[in-house]
Give the backbone structure.
Amino acid sequence: MLRAKPLNASRFSLFGDVIELREDNVRFPINQGTAVRHHALSTVQLSGENDEAIVSIFLTEPVALPFTAESMECHPLGSQAFIPLSDSPYLVAVAPAGDFKQHSVELFVAQPHQGVNYYQGVWHHYLLSLRGASRFLVIDRQGPGTNCEVINLDPPLTFSVEE
């Protein structure tokens, strides 16, 4: 059974970026001082010349724990960012890009103020909301070519959160 660790930028750096407000962000005032821009928190990765970044909203239902994961996916042609629009923590399961190795899967619990941007090719599980239906703003790639590879887990993995 994999137990989730709290998500933070250093633990997640192999897999992508944590998108959140932090004291060390590059930031500056904008809009005549009525707002503060936290600048370039993550970069959208696109590998093809005809690719474009698109913005979508995903609606998810909560899962019960422990959760049995039967598959993982990766997007070899672009990064994929998820920014929560709801007040629910969620699970983030990832493994390094390249040949999938089930023993290398790591599990994090992300808080509602934390988004993630999976680097191009990083293996991850689909969104797993923990409390109530949730909405996520999603920034990813659109363009020619197949950008979603799915692998079945054998045996399946069980995800849990320490209370």
Remarks:
- The longest strand covers residues 149-161.
- The chain has one domain: 2-161.
- The CA atoms of residues 71 and 152 lie 4 Å apart.
